[in-house]
Amino acid sequence: MQVLVIGAGVVGLAVARAAARRGHTVVVAEQAGAIGTGISSRNSEVIHAGMYYPTGSLRARHCVAGRRMLYDFCVSHGVAHRKYGKLIVAADDAELGKIESIAAQGRENDVEGLELIGGNAARALEPELSCIGALHSPETGVIDGHGFMLALRGELEDAGGAIAFNTPVTGAALKSGQWRVAFGGSEAGTACFDAMVNCAGLGAQALARAIDGYPGSRVPRLVLAKGNYFSYAGRPVFSRLIYPTPMPGGLGVHVTLDLAGRMRFGPDVEWIEHEDYDVDPARADLFYARIRRYWPALRDSMLAPDYAGIRPKLTGKGEPQADFMLDTPAEHGVSRLVQMFGIESPGLTSSLSLAEAAVDSLDGSMPHAAQKYRHQT
Ligand SMILES: Cc1cc2nc3c(=O)[nH]c(=O)nc-3n(C[C@H](O)[C@H](O)[C@H](O)COP(=O)(O)OP(=O)(O)OC[C@H]3O[C@@H](n4cnc5c(N)ncnc54)[C@H](O)[C@@H]3O)c2cc1C
Question: What is the C-alpha separation between 296 and 300, in angstroms, rounded?
Answer without folding.
Answer: 11
